[in-house]
Design a protein that fits this description.
Shape: rod-shaped
Number of helices: 9
Radius of gyration: 61 Å
Strand content: under 5%
Distance between the termini: 73 Å
């Protein structure tokens, strides 16, 4: 089927094509009717004054009607014109041989056929030719009066006019029907496209749903693996912390006993050794606290690790940190000095965390310094700092 066009000219042309198809079908019906009319004349010829002439007219009508069948496949206009001419000739001859001018009123039939088969232009041309034939005096009928001619001509034009007026609603209906047909086809094509898009969308949605199901299964498997890894890590941390705590507690115990009772071995221990024991004791305590921090990793992961605030002397905190890292500086022949103001207030902070910060800073400074040394200054300033 030809594609639907939105051009009004195409719609009109399509409607005219429909009208031509209707005219063609009407021609197929009118042709055998005219032939049957010729046969009817042959069968009723004995009723007329000149039966032989009427029978001949019927036979002639049948014979002349047959070419219409061949012309219909070549040209609709030619076939229609031939059929109208045959019908007109048969009526004129019938009026002559019957000797009845009233028979000319049958010329309304070819006028009506021209309106049906040839449309408005054909109806006007056909009616004009029939009018010329009647009023020109060329008819071989002696008894045709002007009154009869006027009646016949008037009947021809009235008949054609009525047929044309009657065909206007038909033409409008065909145009409206074709327009609706075009709109329906367009809506149907749109509905098919929408249905196809919907099917594709449903297919894509189904694929996406399958992917989501697979991702959900994979997520569950990964979550289980993560839970298992977390459990294994917690078990590992607990085991490592337990294994480290035992030797650290032993070091703390012996270092604490020696620091508190240096005369227990019966000899006087050198002051340098006692200072080293004090460093060992301090660092062992710090290491023990770090082991406690390892046990709190689970709290860090869940965001529930809170700081332990307590009143702390910043001087004591700095001196303890410098004492712990001083051997590192002395091994590299670097100095480690402290300049701590006497009027520092007591601060509320987490003793262990701040000491870790100071120890990390001093350890990094000791490793990165090759000459000179490091000075730690602590003083109170009126300047306030804010973070965003």
């Amino acid at each position: 089927m030809n594609p639907i066009s939105d051009d009004p000219l195409d719609v009109k042309q399509n409607a005219q094509a429909v009208l031509r198809n209707i005219a063609g079908e009407s021609l197929q019906i009118a042709t055998p009717i005219l032939a049957l009319s010729g046969l009817l004349l042959i069968l009723t010829a004995h009723l007329f004054p000149e039966p032989q002439s009427v029978g001949t007219l019927g036979l002639l009508t049948i014979v002349l009607t047959l070419p219409t069948l061949a012309l219909r496949h070549m040209s609709h206009v030619a076939a229609s014109a031939w059929l109208i001419a045959v019908c007109t000739l048969a009526i004129v001859l019938l009026a002559k041989w019957v000797a009845s001018p009233v028979t000319l009123c049958l010329l309304l039939v070819p006028a009506a056929l021209s309106s049906i088969f040839l449309g408005v232009p054909g109806a006007i041309i056909g009616s004009a030719l029939l009018t010329t034939l009647v009023v020109s005096g060329c008819l071989p009928i002696a008894s045709v009066t002007p009154e009869i001619s006027a009646v016949v001509v008037a009947g021809i034009w009235i008949n054609v006019s009525l047929l044309l007026l009657a065909s206007r609603p038909l033409r409008g209906t065909i145009l409206w029907s074709w327009f609706n047909y075009r709109e329906s086809r367009a809506a149907l094509d749109t509905a098919r496209d929408t249905q196809l898009q919907l099917k594709e969308a449903l297919k894509a949605l189904g694929q996406a749903n399958e992917q989501l199901v697979r991702l959900d299964r994979r997520t569950r498997a990964l979550r289980q693996e993560a839970e298992e890894a977390r459990r294994v890590k917690e078990q590992f941390v607990a085991n490592v912390s337990h294994e480290l705590r035992t030797p650290i507690n032993m070091v703390l115990g012996f270092a604490g006993v020696i620091a508190k009772a240096p005369d227990m071995y019966g000899i006087k221990l050198p002051g340098a050794l006692l200072a080293d024991l004090d460093v060992i004791l301090r660092n062992s305590q710090h290491l023990s606290e770090l082991i406690d921090d390892i046990l709190d990793l689970s709290r860090v992961e869940t965001g529930r690790w809170a700081l332990t605030r307590e009143p702390v002397s910043l001087r004591e905190l700095i001196e303890a940190a410098t004492t712990a890292v001083r051997p590192l500086f002395e091994s590299k022949q670097l100095y480690l000095r402290t300049e701590i103001a006497n009027d520092l207030p007591t601060l509320s902070l987490d003793h262990t965390r701040i000491r870790e910060v100071i120890l990390n800073l001093l350890s990094n400074a000791g490793r990165a310094t090759d000459e000179g040394g490091v000075t730690v200054r602590a003083f109170e300033s009126a300047q306030r700092f804010s973070s965003k």
